[in-house]
Design a protein that fits this description.
elongated; Secre_tail; about 60 residues; T9SS type A sorting domain-containing protein; mainly beta; four-stranded antiparallel sheet
Length: about 60
């Protein structure tokens, strides 16, 4: 996932029941983020970015 530098401070990988599966801090210099989905079951997940604004992206693991 790509985004503006110095805009988001945290990222969460969330299942559709609202459980936070992974959480990480975002450095002010970061413009890219990846989550390792290998250990997760196939299905739909959300990535929520928070900072000066909030952005939620749907992710599908097949």
């Amino acid at each position: 996932m790509n985004f503006e530098k110095d805009f988001y401070t945290t990222a969460k990988l969330i299942d559709l029941q609202g459980k936070i599966l992974q959480k990480r801090n975002i450095s002010i210099a970061d413009t890219q983020l990846t989550f390792d989905l290998k250990s997760l079951d196939a299905g739909n997940y959300l990535i929520q970015l928070e900072g000066k604004g909030t952005n939620v992206q749907k992710v599908v693991k097949e």
